[in-house]
Specification:
alpha/beta; six-stranded mixed beta sheet; two-stranded antiparallel ribbon; elongated
C-alpha cells in the first residue's frame, strides 16, 4: 500500500513538472523577444544559410529540430529572462512564476509592437522622401536626400537615385554636420542654393528635425530659403503644434516652418508635378505652424 501511494505521488509530481516545463516552452516560443524568435527564426540568419541549405523551410526545420534551440532556451533561463520553474508543491512560488512569465510575455509583445512601428516608420519615411525627391525634380530643382538614407531600396532602385551626391557649401564649417542630415532638400539648379527643406516625422519627436532646420536657417544659405516643412501624418498636427510651444523652440517663429500633411502631399503631388511651378503649390497645401 505504501509503495502504491509513493508511486502515485511520484507520478503526480512528474506530471506537474512536465506541465511546468511545457508552459515554459510555450511562453519561450511565443515571446517575440526570446532567442527562439530573435535568433532561431531570425530572417537574416535564415538568409545566411541559403548557401548551405536547400531552401528557407528546410533551414527553419533544421533549426527547430536541433539541440541549439534547447541551448537558446537554457540561455534565456540562465540569463534571468525567465526564472527557473519553482519546486513542486510550492503553490505560492508557482503562482509568482506564472505571473512573471506573463509579465515577460507582455513586455515582449510591447517590444514587438514597437519594432513593427519602427519598421513601418522607416517604410513610410522612405516613401515620402521618394515623393518629395520626385516632386522636386519635376519642378526643376536639384534634390538632396539625407546622406544615411540614400541607399535605401525604393521601387526598383534606390532613394538616392538622381539626387546630388554632394551638398555645396556644407563640406566644412557651420551646419556641416547637421544640414546634410535633413531628409530632403531642394536646390536651385543655377545658384546651387538650398530653396526648400523637408523633415519627415512619422512617429518620432520633431526636436532633432527642428534643430537641423535651425542650423540651416542661421547659416549662409538662409537668404535663399523659400520654405521649411515638417512632413507628418494628418493626425499629428495638434501634437506638433503643442511641441512647438516649448521654450526650446522659441526661435521657430522666425523660421516660418509649415506643416505638410501626408494626405495633402499624396493627393496633390501628381497634379503639382504636372502643372506646378516653383514653391507656391507646396506652400498652398501646407499650413503655417507659428
Amino acid at each position: 500500500m505504501q509503495i502504491a501511494t509513493t508511486l502515485t505521488v511520484a507520478a503526480d509530481c512528474d506530471a506537474d513538472v512536465l506541465n511546468v516545463v511545457a508552459m515554459l516552452l510555450y511562453r519561450w516560443r511565443d515571446d517575440p523577444g526570446s532567442t527562439y524568435r530573435s535568433w532561431f527564426l531570425w530572417e537574416e540568419r535564415v538568409k545566411n544559410f541559403r548557401s548551405i541549405r536547400r531552401g528557407i523551410q528546410q533551414v527553419v526545420a533544421d533549426i527547430k529540430a536541433g539541440l541549439g534551440a534547447v541551448g537558446g532556451l537554457l540561455f534565456d533561463v540562465g540569463s534571468g529572462r525567465y526564472p527557473a520553474p519553482p519546486l513542486w508543491g510550492d503553490v505560492d512560488a508557482r503562482a509568482a512564476w506564472e505571473a512573471d512569465l506573463a509579465r515577460v510575455r507582455e513586455e515582449g509583445s510591447k517590444a514587438a509592437k514597437a519594432l513593427a512601428e519602427a519598421r513601418e516608420s522607416d517604410h513610410t519615411n522612405t516613401e515620402d522622401q521618394g515623393w518629395l525627391r520626385d516632386l522636386g525634380m519635376s519642378l526643376g530643382y536639384n534634390t538632396w536626400v539625407e546622406a544615411n538614407d540614400r541607399n535605401r531600396p525604393l521601387g526598383s532602385g534606390r532613394l538616392g537615385n538622381g539626387c546630388r551626391s554632394a551638398l555645396p557649401g556644407f563640406d566644412t564649417g557651420s551646419g556641416a554636420d547637421a544640414v546634410p542630415l535633413i531628409d530632403v532638400l531642394w536646390l536651385d539648379k543655377e545658384s546651387k542654393r538650398i530653396v526648400a527643406a523637408y523633415e519627415v516625422e512619422h512617429i518620432t519627436s520633431i526636436y532633432s528635425g527642428i534643430v537641423r532646420m535651425l542650423d540651416l536657417a542661421l547659416g549662409p544659405e538662409a537668404h535663399a530659403l523659400e520654405g521649411m516643412f515638417l512632413v507628418a501624418p494628418d493626425g499629428r498636427e495638434g501634437e506638433v503644434r503643442e511641441q512647438l510651444t516649448r521654450p526650446a523652440f522659441s526661435r521657430v517663429a522666425d523660421l516660418k516652418v509649415h506643416y505638410l500633411p501626408y494626405g495633402e502631399l499624396k493627393a496633390n503631388r501628381k497634379t503639382i508635378a504636372r502643372f506646378g511651378h516653383g514653391m507656391k503649390p507646396i506652400q498652398a497645401i501646407s499650413r503655417a505652424l507659428v
